[in-house]
Amino acid sequence: MLFSNRPTLDAARRMPVAELLGLPPEHLALLQEDARSALDAANRMRDWIEGTIALRYEQRAVGARTAAGKDTGTVRFQDGVVEVVVDLPKRVEWDQPRLAALSDQIRAGGEDPGQYVEVSFKVSERAYTGWPERIRVAFEPARTVRTGKPSYRLAILSETALRDSPHGPGILPARGGR
Asked: What is the DSSP string of 20-61?
């Protein structure tokens, strides 16, 4: 077995900064490399776990979103004592040449296209949903809605939260060991 006099990441975590400053530069370089490797490993593990969670809850999230009449956004449901919050962000893209043509048409009609589009030919989704139907219909062919990557957040609920939850009324966590 090969022993080294350089500190491990665990040891470095407990060392005062003054002591870390006194380490040889090669030790600092190796600690930095170790930290990057540990971070990469943690990120891979997080991705693995989040992928597993996504596989487990994807169909329930789709069902909850359908039941709520939503294509995107946040839904909540319970799995035992865990509340699952799933967010599927909306990514709206606008066809730039179509927006430019629509801006020209609006301008030719005597209106200010600045009331409907931003200079970069982006359209605020909030504004779009508030427009009159005739304007929304004209812009619809230039609009593409994509979804982002869904995120899943799990939280173990307290007994009070479980008892009062609309997702699982009266459910209490099991007592005893695991």
From this structure: HHTS-HHHHHHHHHHHHHHHHHHHHHHHHHHHHHHHHHHHHH
Facing residues of 92 across strands?
145
Using one digit for the tens of pLDDT, what is the confidence trace for 19-50?
999 998 888 998 999 999 999 999 999 999 99
Structure tokens at 144: 């593409």
- Does residue 94 contact residue 146 with C-beta atoms inside 8 Å? no
Quote the pTM value: 0.56
Q: Which helix (H) or strand (E) holds 66?
A: helix 25-67
- 88 DSSP β-pair partners: 73
Six token digits for residue 55: 């596989």
The per-residue pLDDT for range 50-85, each reduced to its tens digit, is 999 999 999 999 999 999 999 999 999 999 999 999
- Cα separation of 100 and 23, whole Å? 61
Q: For residue 116, which of 171, 108, 11, 124 has the smallest C-alpha distance? A: 124
